[in-house]
Design goal:
The structure is a homodimer. With about 375 residues, chain A is an alpha+beta fold. The first copy, chain A, has eleven helices and 20 strands.
Chain lengths: ~375, ~375
């Protein structure tokens, strides 16, 4: 018998996710979970669409205690939602002149009293604040309870099928990074470097490249979040590219550094320190280790504070960055099948920085690189 | 003298935008505007980065009455923000163990009493709801006022520089769509069609392709928001691709339909109806026309309701879809330099639909196509 799918995963995957959510709800005495966000909708239903990029329509997911999720979505999503494993799909005509789902939500939530929502770290409210306030006014007996930490914890531990998707996109991006010498040359404008790299990622099988940032400059770069300029690469430049490409909705997130023509010892040494910091964290990244321990391990090798970046890595999966953070206050204990990035960075002086990043899988025992580890020495191209 | 830039526009552009915001604030008696969202941050500062894809850190923009905007941002954004025209940039170390910008925001907002926010249609709160609630508790004297409609109206009317960017990306996408016969053949899996099209858009100069949806099927497609399957194109298929590609952070948003090998008269006729509806709307799209009038004009040609889609077009610019909506309840009056999509759709029966979309600029007099108008007859490839 062929197993039935809901989106990109077999239904059994969603049953397992739902089961974990139900256990959490019982523990917290939550009657139902109420989500407005894309990752949670996709996590519990398999509903995957780029249509969330349009801010026009809100989308809602409700998970009652002991029951399958209920989708409360605009009619335009009805056909695709009916391809998921859900049975209860309630729709309204959206955009609506006066009532964009609020009365429908009100009627569904009414019988309950403790409703879990994402209200904490890393969350947004993806519905008009006024509509949420109306919901609160319509339902004065309901306590909205913050369950961000608990839902983040559910999503941190990946299933074998999720790991396979992340591994696939990490492999695709590794292949593109390893192709750098064929893709980039001195004289190529940075925006063309970005386009060329995106095309290579797509050629190698990436579905999308939602995230590509980087920088280039003589002996280092100043910034890792800028869009590319049209300045051509020149001899002596250090180029860094950091990509979040996707496969079936799952991200890789790692970077590579390249020198063009030459690199001074200072920069070569910085590269080695970052690789050493990565390896030091890799050595201790086991179930039971805390995120703050990984941070301290890297800090010790680097011998500087995190500076402006604030952390040395994070969780990874359906979002480019997910909880936890590798930062000095994050007590999250690593567990088998978490996927995290190791992302040490350091200041080169003169306002320049260097960042290195790898993606790893926490296993019972030693972890495993999902990105193919960068070369030991700073690669010099051209 | 070379004019100074802030991100992708000259500083004079931001002065003009700010001036319009100040006028609006005076009219509504608003002390300051408080934004948490990417488009508004970029609109008033020029700050453009893909880093918003990471949900970890909130970013805030404050616009006081009669003053330049104040950025309240994580330290990681400080360097890039200092390249904008802003003078007042306040940062905190983020992620933070206990206070992700809330006390800093509190101290800045404290002297004021009426704060405008996006709380209405099409808006989200891109900060943790708990942090917003803390802000409200810290500042019980402040009234948070919904200014969604007013801010949307500011952004609806585009400057010549904005129009140039939209026109550029529309031209790029038109070139790629016109290249379809060289790109797509019977036998090509739909996910490969998507990758090929994205690469062609990048080759033609798109910065990014954040949005590509579509469908293919024998005599029509059922759905316009799904990710692509790996099913190969076959004789008799109708393929629709709808892309939101970007140039300097501005979107195009239009689609094209293609038949492979053959198309039945029913489908050819539907294509003509949609083109006729588009042209009928184009004829009446002048300053003074209301969005609901455009909707009614298209409805009359189509002879059906909008069905699940709900509307026949929308605003376009820094976001894939923006206010207004071409729908029966939207009273927005068109003005010179608005950019909108005309997006009629119809049911082909059997659960199949057809959608057509063009992008136009409202001018004093007749409008202008920014997308190069689709062929009069359904193109038959292969």
């Amino acid at each position: 018998m062929i197993e039935e799918f809901s989106g990109d995963f077999p239904v059994s995957e969603f049953e397992a996710r739902l089961n974990k959510a139900h256990v959490m709800m019982h523990k917290l005495n939550i009657d139902l979970l109420f989500f407005t966000s894309e990752p949670e909708m996709r996590y519990f239903t398999g509903f995957r669409t780029l249509f969330w990029q349009s801010p026009t329509r809100p989308w809602f997911l409700i998970i009652p205690k002991n029951k399958k999720p209920i989708a409360v979505v605009p009619e335009i999503g009805s056909a695709l939602m009916h391809e998921t494993w859900l049975d209860d799909i309630q729709t309204w005509s959206s955009p609506h002149a006066t009532d964009d789902g609020v009365s429908l939500l009100t009627s569904i939530l009414k019988p309950f009293s403790r409703v879990g929502m994402l209200m904490g770290r890393e969350s947004s409210l993806r519905m008009p604040l006024k509509d949420f306030q109306s919901l609160q006014q319509n339902l004065p007996h309901i306590s909205f309870v913050n369950v961000s930490a608990e839902v983040q914890h559910l999503r941190m531990v990946k299933s074998p099928a999720e790991i396979q998707f992340i591994e696939q996109i990490c492999s695709i991006a590794s292949t593109s990074f390893e192709n750098a010498a064929n893709l980039f040359q001195v004289g190529m404008p940075l925006d063309e470097v970005f386009r060329t790299f995106k095309k290579d990622l797509l050629t190698n099988g990436a579905d999308d490249v939602p995230y590509l940032v980087g920088g280039a400059g003589d002996g280092g770069y100043a910034d890792v979040i800028s869009p590319p300029s049209s300045t051509p690469l020149k001899e002596g430049d250090i180029l860094m590219l950091d990509t979040g490409a996707t496969f079936k909705g799952y991200f890789c997130d790692f970077d590579r550094n390249y020198a063009f023509g030459r690199a001074c010892d200072h920069v070569k040494h910085a590269y080695k320190i970052l690789l050493n910091a990565t390896m030091a964290a890799f050595e201790v990244a086991r179930p039971g280790t805390r995120c703050k321990d990984l941070h301290a391990t890297m800090q010790q090798v680097i011998g500087q504070s995190t500076g402006d970046v604030g952390r040395y890595g994070h969780g990874l999966g359906m979002q480019l960055t997910e909880a936890p953070s590798l930062i000095d206050f994050d007590d999250t204990v690593l567990e088998e099948n978490m996927v995290i990035t190791l992302e040490p960075s350091l200041s080169l002086g003169d306002g320049k920085i260097m960042v290195h990043e790898e993606n790893i899988l926490i296993q019972d025992g030693a972890p495993r690189f999902l990105s193919r580890l960068a070369p030991e020495e700073l690669p010099i191209l051209g």
